Amino acid sequence: MTELDTIKTAVRDVMQEEMKAFYIDREEHYQHHQFIKGLKTGIEGCQSLVGRITLITIIGGVATVLVLGVVAWIRKQVGL
To answer: What residues in the chain have per-residue pLDDT under 50?
Structure first.
């Protein structure tokens, strides 16, 4: 074994020892991903809901202004 191989082995051993504190079980890691996926789905649903409500509000506002304009024009024509 060369000096370089000895250094590689020593570094690998130290890194493995240091990384043990960050080890997460596979099943637990999978559950974390499922939780994050659920959060993303909920956020996307909320964004689409907010978008729909905003669009409906804008369309409703434009329709209201048009109806009020037509009613005002009719009143002016009739003389009320």
So the answer is: none
Every domain of the chain and the residues it spans: 3-78
Closest residue by Cα to residue 59 from 51, 71, 70, 49: 51
C-alpha distance from residue 32 to each of 12, 22, 24, 39, 79 (Å):
28, 14, 10, 11, 69
Token pair in block for residue 53: 């409500």
Alpha-carbon distance 40 to 42, whole Å? 5
CA of residue 1 relative to chain centroid, distance:
52
Give the tokens for residue 56.
């409906």
What's the pTM? 0.46
